[in-house]
Specification:
Elements: H1 2-16, H2 19-28, H3 33-57, H4 63-89, H5 95-114, H6 116-128, H7 132-163, H8 167-186, H9 211-228, H10 231-239, H11 243-272, H12 276-296, H13 300-323, H14 334-362, H15 366-384, H16 386-389, H17 391-399
Helix pairs in contact: 1-6, 1-7, 1-8, 3-5, 3-6, 3-14, 4-5, 4-8, 6-7, 6-14, 7-11, 7-13, 9-13, 9-14, 9-15, 10-11, 11-13, 12-13, 12-15, 14-15
Length: 401
């Protein structure tokens, strides 16, 4: 599992290296905020669509092949993105052509490759563990690796941008290439692989055993997406500060949330050893409380505390929602389940930005209240849906020899 965790951390850090420079580069290229948002949305939509396909691929080909294929596509996308932006800044390409190439490379190609990595990690987590506590621990570590990238990537990108706005664009594909070489070496004799061609129906999103758990996961991740995108607007409008102070406030709140999520998923969840459903039932109400605090917070200190509390709630709930569906199926279905879980998570990064910005135009507090409602829905499903109430029995039946 260690090579996969390193791979997840490195590739998502490479992605997040670009975060600090996307907005200023868009301005330099004469692109609008809407165009930049469209590129990110298309990337998330591509990841959502590609995840089930990678899950099916894991049933037929080796883990090492999936990892290298995903990294190759992601690396090609990052290289193409760097070339397109460089040519656009040098006025070799007109803005419309530059934007189209950015969509094709950073949006489609990179999203297609990136989808393979978490699917592979979650599949292996399902195959190498049988006890529920072990599976939630491993999925928590996968989540912690992704969470740590949200801290490491932007910090590294910001430091590189001091020298040049283009430097993060050049470093990201280099990381991808080096990571591909490392995977070829480190995963060469990896014994874990998904089962070969398996007959029988594949799990579906609407499967009666699974859809309430997927709905819980969608609500949990959607709640984060609803407030993450509009945080800058909230800070600027509530605190009446300039753009520089707004950026600093956003960075502080998100850094606190990211660090707390990493600590909870990487340390607390393995130490607790709780079942997946218990993690959700404890974590989601904490998230509800955090959104309630955020709805009334009118200074940076309270906003930061709210995001720290949100980090605790989501840090507990996220490993539960990623592990729970895998506990209801056998080993032959783990890769398909991993693809569906990743698709559900990816879909929230499509819906979240669009919904939150629309709600903010209606009322600034509306996205926060919508996030609270989403987290509350997750709580209700975790306690009262038949699938959740019978999750413990089903998981024990799957784990039994």
């Amino acid at each position: 599992m260690a090579p996969l965790l390193v791979t997840i951390l490195a590739i998502f850090s490479a992605q997040q290296l670009l975060t600090p420079v996307l907005a200023p580069l868009a301005r330099e290229l004469a692109l609008t905020e809407t165009q930049l948002g469209l590129m990110i949305t298309i990337s998330a939509a591509t990841l959502t669509a590609a995840s089930p396909m990678w899950g099916r691929a894991m049933r037929r080909i080796r883990l090492r092949t999936v990892l290298v294929s995903g990294l190759g596509l992601a690396g090609a996308g990052l290289i193409g993105f760097a070339v397109a932006v460089t040519l656009g800044l040098n006025e070799v390409l007109p803005p419309p052509v530059t934007f189209a190439l950015m969509i094709a490379t950073r949006g489609v190609l990179f999203g297609l490759g990136l989808a393979a990595l978490p699917v592979a990690a979650l599949t292996v987590a399902g195959l190498v563990t049988t006890r529920e506590a072990d599976r939630t621990r491993v999925t928590g570590l996968v989540g912690a690796a992704q969470g740590l990238s949200l801290v490491v990537g932007p910090a590294g990108g910001g430091a590189l941008a001091v020298a040049s706005l283009l430097l993060p664009l050049y470093v990201s594909p280099v990381i991808c290439v080096l990571l591909t070489v490392w995977v070829l070496v480190a995963v060469r004799r990896e014994p874990t692989r998904a089962p070969q061609r398996v007959e029988g129906p594949r799990p579906r999103l609407w499967d009666a055993r699974l859809w309430p758990l997927f709905a819980i996961g969608f609500c949990v991740f959607l709640s984060l997406g609803l407030v993450q995108v509009v945080l800058g607007f909230l800070i600027a409008d509530r605190l009446h500060v300039d753009s520089q102070a707004t950026a600093g406030g956003v960075g502080l709140a998100l850094a606190v949330a990211g660090i707390v999520i990493v600590g909870v998923q990487g340390v607390l969840v393995p130490a607790l050893g709780w079942r997946a459903l218990r993690l959700i039932r404890v974590g989601a109400p904490i998230a509800v409380a955090a959104f309630g605090l955020l709805a009334v917070a009118h200074n940076l200190w309270l906003i930061t505390v709210a995001f720290g509390l949100l980090g605790v709630g989501l840090g507990l709930a996220m490993p539960g929602v990623t592990a729970a569906p895998s506990l209801l199926v056998g080993s032959e279905e783990q890769s398909s389940i991993s693809g569906l879980v990743n698709a559900v998570i990816g879909s929230t990064f499509v819906a979240g930005p669009l919904l939150s910005t629309a709600l903010y135009e209606i009322a600034p507090v509306a996205p926060v209240l919508a996030a609270l409602a989403a987290a509350a829905t997750a709580v209700a499903l975790a306690w009262f849906s038949p699938a959740a109430r019978h999750a413990k029995t089903a998981a024990e039946a799957v784990a039994a020899p």
